Amino acid sequence: MNQSAIAAVGLYAALNMVILLWLAIATARLRNKHRVWIGTGGVEHLTRTMRGHANAIENIPMTIILLLIAALLGMPVLILHVLGATFTLGRAIHAWHFIDEHGARWQRVVGFGLSGVVTVTTLLGVLGYVLWLLF
Hints:
Blueprint: H1 3-34, H2 44-72, H3 77-99, H4 105-134
Helix pairs in contact: 1-2, 1-3, 2-3, 2-4, 3-4
């Protein structure tokens, strides 16, 4: 087992948790500002920030799990860093788009694009390698 590879994934898991906390804090601040305790209260900015948080929750965990499986299967540490850093940058830009009340469209496109490419690349790499090992 390559501890450096697992440590690399741990680094990106921790950094992505920081992004999730950033989204959670932004949501809590908007809730307090607008005195909305359940739902969105019709506050567009709160709806936007909550959607960004939900999107992160939907996408970050499975990609981190795929990166961990790739590490356990022997993916080189440098490749894990490239994938992890690209994914994390993408998720940070994507979060920024949703936290900013008038986030620029490029943030959503670039953020989703970077993180999506990493997710699909890692998925195909793990799936292909596992199928090759099994059959």
